[in-house]
Amino acid sequence: MINIKQFAELQKKSKNSFASQRQLMKKVMAGQTVLCSTCQQPLFLITPQHSATASSDNSGIRCKKGCTDIQLEFV
Ligand SMILES: [Zn+2]
User: Fold this and answer.
1) Which residue segment(s) compose the domain that 26 sits in?
2) Into how many domains does the chain fold?
3) CB-based neighbours (< 5 A) of ligand 1, an ion
């Protein structure tokens, strides 16, 4: 669960959205629970293997509802 202090830090960093997305990605990849700011559902990492049913082979971070959908570019 994200606490107020972490949230404030996150907001500070969101000045630069790219940096904050990287931060988010790091947390999710490290196994930390990060909640979607819209629906408060946990975010999870999509890898090309996970999205095998979709036509896209993009990796990303998404919530269940899809209001958070960050595309990541892994090479
Ligand atoms: Zn959401």
Assistant:
1) 4-72
2) 1
3) 36, 38-39, 63, 65, 67-68
